[in-house]
Amino acid sequence: AFIVAGSVGAISEVLSDLQRAAGATERLVELLESPSEITEISAPKPLRSDNVGLSFVDVSFSYPTRPDEQVLHNVSFKTEPGEMLALVGPSGAGKSTIFDLIERFYDPTAGHVEVNGTDITQLKLQDLRQTVGFVPQDPVLFAGTLRDNLVYANPHATDAEIAQALQLAYAEQFVADLASGLDTKVGEGGVGLSGGQRQRLAIARALLSKPAVLLLDEATSALDAESENHIRLSIDGLKGRMTILVIAHRLSTVRQADRILVLESGRVVGSGSHDQLLNSSALYARFAQMQFAA
Ligand code: ATP
């Protein structure tokens, strides 16, 4: 086959996008359907390794396919290094869009996003995506071994690194309990794993890239009690080691967060701890009552 030189880079870029998106089929479809909207800068800045967190500076955004519908309106927030921030708000408020912009699936229409003090459009896409770990709501495993699924973003991970990531994700025990351990065939035709087990593996997979920022889209569906408990313990263990943003659907997760950002119709309408927000925000109080009712 004949490939023009210029398109090789584009193809490998799309492939790395696809690899990144392999955990989330809906995002995969989104990526396949949308032409690549972002461009790489020719002389990117190095990514600072000191973790100074993440900022949104006056970010407004419309999806390219729907330019007349503004999805985010002047969103600004800043995390402290190692802070855990929970995003809450009704469906359609813009929570997933915030994650899309952090991963640079799209660029803001106005304003900018900074990771470790640098506008992310000034970074190499590969550096950015290495630094931002993403754990989708309902991770999909591809056909292959567990090990293949864990290391595709970081093929040089050592067994010791894999073991440590599994431990931090509270996935160590169930992997050890599988007859073939890391060599177990999963995905299509392989052993079936529960949603909670897949999400814990997705946490381990993200950790192997040693992310400075971890984006976690909490499952809306009920997980088995053990998985739910283990994901909670895992988040506790990760807190402080990296900046964590979680789209939270459970009161227990919101309670773990250092701070909660309340979104409504693409705007930040509140920020604070659960108790502070219960007192200061009627919207949050109502939302919490409905969303988190036991
Ligand atoms: P949910 O909790 O239901 O996932 P959310 O708070 O994450 O909601 P978003 O998914 O960010 O909300 O959606 C915000 C708005 O952007 C919605 O109006 C949605 O219809 C729109 N939207 C999301 N993805 C796209 C897309 N790929 N193209 C066009 N519009 C989109």
TrEMBL record:
GO terms for molecular function: ABC-type oligopeptide transporter activity; ATP binding; ATP hydrolysis activity. Its main location: membrane. It is a multi-pass membrane protein. The keyword Iron-sulfur does not apply. Coiled coil: none annotated. Signal peptide: none annotated. Residues 54-290 form the ABC transporter domain. Keywords: ATP-binding, Membrane, Nucleotide-binding, Transmembrane, Transmembrane helix. One of its GO terms (cellular component) is membrane. It is found in: Membrane. It comes from the Eukaryota. This is ABC transporter ATP-binding protein. It comes from Symbiodinium necroappetens.
